[in-house]
């Protein structure tokens, strides 16, 4: 097993590692000592640089894709780079914030759904990655409309629409004791009853007992059936179940040389089109190193094997300091980390402000 040098790098090793990672991020080409000597301000010989690169290789921070090639960073090398070697200057953060905020402000008057899609597009274009934004699970989200719809002889769908543009539905079997001949008329009465009692109620209060004594006696036999449906709907209003994920930037990602192979592209497309639910726990679970409110998962640190050749940088945005949604960028491990981190921080802060004002 290779020793891990991440805690024992001297200043020269740190400088060579940073230069190697910077060069590889910029060119996507393996890096040799001669290139570093020519392009960077080193006060040591090419032979010394070569020896240091060999030490970093043996320590598991760099590796050679081919015996005759230069070296590229490993996942561990990127981790040291992110944790210890990059430190975005205040000027860089300010420029990033000003640029993104100017573009984001143009979207502020849009509906929440359109706003989130527009922000995803801006973030993807700026970072060069796939942008992922989950719709807010607002504690103040209220019911705008609720409806029971008969879908066949003995099935009813309950649909709820919130003022934060969430839509959730559940399909329920009609109990055997309920006669279906008069069901259409009953559903009209029940819909009126539900909207009268649930309109402007918080989504988190869906399963609270209703005042069934206000309903005509002949319709009270539906109480248990409706309450069970409301409980199911309450569970369906979890953001993961809702599946409200705004995605943009697949075209940006396909421009990267890492995604020229069909197999890698297929894995990403499958994830985005068919398995979006797998992304939620990755964006909301934060065991990986977190700095300045941003979580960075590199390569094999991502639990989902499909994208272990990628990096996921994510954060949360808040309503009154309570996290209500997630934002992230997904790209190759060879990405512009400083730019991506700053963009995620800026957009998370902006969304927190916008959501709290709505």
Descriptive report:
With 358 residues, this protein is an alpha+beta fold. It has 3 domains: 11-85, Arc Repressor Mutant, subunit A (Orthogonal Bundle); 90-137 and 244-357, Beta-Lactamase (2-Layer Sandwich), CATH 3.30.450.40; 143-237, Heat-inducible transcription repressor hrca homolog, domain 3 (Enolase-like, domain 1). Helices cover 44% and strands 18% of the residues. The chain is built from 13 helices and 11 strands. It has helices at 11-27, 33-39, 46-58, 75-85, 90-105, 112-127, 183-198, 223-236, 239-242, 250-254, 262-273, 279-284, 337-357; strands at residues 62-63, 72-73, 130-134, 143-152, 155-162, 167-173, 245-248, 290-291, 294-298, 310-319, 322-332. A 6-stranded antiparallel β-sheet has the order 7-3-11-10-9-8. Strands 4-5-6 form a 3-stranded antiparallel β-sheet, with helices on one face. A two-stranded antiparallel sheet has the order 1-2. Strand 8 (290-291) and strand 9 (294-298) form a beta hairpin. Helix 1 crosses helix 3 (46-58), helix 1 packs across helix 4 (75-85) and helix 5 (90-105) packs across helix 13. The longest helix has 21 residues, at 337-357. It is elongated and about 90 Å long. The protein starts with 10 loop residues before the first helix and ends with a helix. Residues 239-243 have low confidence and may be disordered.
């Amino acid at each position: 097993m290779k020793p891990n040098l991440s805690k024992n790098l001297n200043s020269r090793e740190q400088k060579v590692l940073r230069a190697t990672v910077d060069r590889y991020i910029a060119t996507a080409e393996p890096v040799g000592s001669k290139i570093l000597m020519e392009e960077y301000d080193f006060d040591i010989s090419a032979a010394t640089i070569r020896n240091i690169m060999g030490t970093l290789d043996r320590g598991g921070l760099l590796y050679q894709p081919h015996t005759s090639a230069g070296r590229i960073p490993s996942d561990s090398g990127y981790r040291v780079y992110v944790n210890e070697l990059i430190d975005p200057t205040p000027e860089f953060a300010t420029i990033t914030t000003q640029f993104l905020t100017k573009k984001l402000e143009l979207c502020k008057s849009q509906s929440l759904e359109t706003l989130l899609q527009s922000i995803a597009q801006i973030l993807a274009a700026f970072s060069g990655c796939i942008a992922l934004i989950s719709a807010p699970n607002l504690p103040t989200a209220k019911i705008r409309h609720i409806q029971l719809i008969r879908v066949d002889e003995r099935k009813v769908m309950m649909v709820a629409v919130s003022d934060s543009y969430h839509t959730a539905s559940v399909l329920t079997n009609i109990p055997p004791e309920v006669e279906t001949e008069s069901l259409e008329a009953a559903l009209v009465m029940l819909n009126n009853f539900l909207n009268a009692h649930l309109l402007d109620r918080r989504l988190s209060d869906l399963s609270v007992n209703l005042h069934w004594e206000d309903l005509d006696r002949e319709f009270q036999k539906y109480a248990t059936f409706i309450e069970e449906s409301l409980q199911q709907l309450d569970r369906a209003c979890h953001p993961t179940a809702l599946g409200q994920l705004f995605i943009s930037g697949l075209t940006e990602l396909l421009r990267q040389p890492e995604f020229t192979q069909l197999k890698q592209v297929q894995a990403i497309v499958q994830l985005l089109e068919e398995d979006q639910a797998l992304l939620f726990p990755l964006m909301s679970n934060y065991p990986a190193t977190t700095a300045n409110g941003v979580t960075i998962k590199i390569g094999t640190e991502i639990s989902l094997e499909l994208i272990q050749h990628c990096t996921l940088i994510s954060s949360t945005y808040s309503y009154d300091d309570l996290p209500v949604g997630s934002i992230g960028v997904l790209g190759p491990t060879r990405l512009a980390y400083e730019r991506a981190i700053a963009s995620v921080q800026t957009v998370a802060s902006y969304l927190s402000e916008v959501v709290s004002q709505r």
